[in-house]
Amino acid sequence: MTSTVPTAVQHADAQQPPITMFGPDFPYAYDDFLAHPAGLGQIPATEHGTEVAVIGGGLSGIVAAYELMKMGLKPVVYEADQIGGRLRTVGFDGCDPSLTAEMGAMRFPPSSTALQRYIDLVDLETRPFPNPLAECTPSTVVDLKGESHYAESVGDLPQVYRDVAEAWNTCLEEGADFSDMNRALRERDVPRIREIWARLVEKLDNQTFYGFLCDSEAFKSFRHREIFGQVGFGTGGWDTDFPNSILEILRVVYTEADDHHRGIVGGSQQLPLRLWEREPGKIVHWPYGTSLASLHVNGVPRPAVTRLHRTAGNRITVTDAGGDIRTYPAAVFTAQSWMLLSKIACDDSLFPIDHWTAIERTHYMESSKLFVPVDRPFWLDKDPVTGRDLMSMTLTDRMTRGTYLLDDGPDKPAVICLSYTWCDDSLKWLPLSANERMEVMLKSLGEIYPNVDIRKHVIGSPVTVSWENEPYFMGAFKANLPGHYRYQRRLFTHFMQDRLPADKRGIFLAGDDISWTAGWAEGAVQTALNAVWGVMHHFGGTTDPTNPGPGDVYDEIAPVELPED
C-alpha cells in the first residue's frame, strides 16, 4: 500500500524480517508465545474446573476465556450487549445477508501477528482493505478547500503533497530516530529498542502530536501542517489526533500499524463468535468437544455486570443484571475501563488508588460511521468525458472526511462507508439520526462529484454508530494525552500482581485500552494473554521453561518507569 502522504517506513522486502506490533514499550514476542508447541502454561490439577469471571465478551474477553478454558479453568463470561465488543458487524434490513458493515474494527495490519494467529485458527479469510491510494484502491480523490485532485498513485497528486510527505519523513527521522527503531523492531533487538525508547519517552511524554510537528524545521509551514492534518498518512487525516501524545503516534508508525491493512471477509465479528463456539483439539480437564458456548447455559454469556466488590479471602464477587450474585477466586475485566466508573458499582478496594487514578484519566476518542448498501460498485464506471473512475475513495475537509468504497465483485451489491470521522468531527454527527446524517453526507459528496447520483444506487436504509453514545463503550478507543504515560504503564503492568498488596490481587485488567496500542485488535489480544498469564500465576501455575510467558520475562523488558515526583 502507498499512503496518501507516505510514511518514512521502509517496508520489508524478501530479505528483511517482518515487523510486529509488540511495539517499543514491551517488546515481547506474543506471536512466538502462541505458536510454541508447549502451550501457554498449566495450572495445578487441584484447580481444574475452578470458575473464573471474565467480564466483557469483546475480543480480549473471548481470547482470555478461550485460553483459560484450554488450561482447565471454567471461564464464566459476562456480556452486556453482544459477543464481539467493537468487532461489530451488522447487516442491512431487507438486503442480502452477505452485505455487511463494520461498525467498529474494519482493517488490520499484518504487523498484528498475535491477532493473525487467531484469525488463522478459526479459518477466516482476509483481503486488502481499500485505504487511500492502497494498491487495491482503484483511485483516490483528495478534496481540500473546494479543490479536488484525482490520483491513482501518489505521483498524481500536486507537488505540495510530496513536499508534505518529505517533511513528515524528515520530522520522524530527526525527532524520533525512526530508521534505527524500525530496524531494531524488525530484528527484535530488545536492548536497542529499549535504549532508543527510554530516551524518547523521557523527552516526548509531555509533547502533543501537533507540538512535535511544530518543533520540526521541516514543518515550519502552517500550510504543510494543515494539509498533513487533513490528509495524513496511511488511513487518512490525522488532525483529530493532534492534541494526543506524540508517543501514541510513534507506536503506530514504528510498527507499521497504519499500513498494508486487510479486512476480514464476511466481517470481523466472526472472529470472537467462532472462538466462542470452537472446540479446541488440545484441552486440559474438559472432555473433547468442550467449547466456551458449551460451558454456558443455553450457549450464551451471563448478562451485564452491575456490581463488583471484594469479599472474605480476597475473592471477587460479581452481581449481574439478572440479580445473580457469584463469587470467584479470580476475575478478568476486559470492558472499557470507564464502565468501572459509571455502569458498575465498585468497591474502592478493587484496585490500588493510583490505578483508579489511571482509570479516571483514561482519554477516549469519539468515532462515527455511516454505511449504505448500493446495487453495484457503480464507482468503477468511467466518466465519458475524463475517462476517470466515476467516484473514488475520498478524503476531504468537508463533514464526511473519509469515504470508503467496498465491493465484492463488479456485478454484486456493494457497500459505501459514506463517512468515517473521529473526535470533534464525530461529535458534529451526534444529534442527527441515521437518515439525517445520510442526507448531509450525500449533499457533501454531491459537491465533490456533481455528476454522480449516489442516491439512485442506494438499495436499503443506512446503518450508523457513534461510539461515544454507546452506553457500554462511551468512546471508540483510548488515546493518551501528553503526560499520560505513567497512567498507561500502571494499567498495562497490572497483571504483575506479586507487586501488589495481597488484598488488591485477583482481578486482572485487559482490553485494547489497557494496551499500548489502543484502537488495534492486537492490543486486545496481547493484554488478554497478559491476563491469562496473571490468572495462571495466581493459581500457582507455570509456563514451560522453553516458552516463557510475558510475566516470566517481565523484569528484562518492563516498560520504562518515569519518576513520579
From TrEMBL:
Residues 59-534 form the Amine oxidase domain. InterPro entries: Amino_oxidase, FAD/NAD-bd_sf, Flavin_monoamine_oxidase. GO terms for molecular function: L-amino-acid oxidase activity. GO terms for biological process: amino acid catabolic process. This is NAD(P)/FAD-dependent oxidoreductase. PANTHER family: AMINE OXIDASE (PTHR10742:SF342), FLAVIN MONOAMINE OXIDASE (PTHR10742). It comes from Streptomyces sp. NBC_00093.
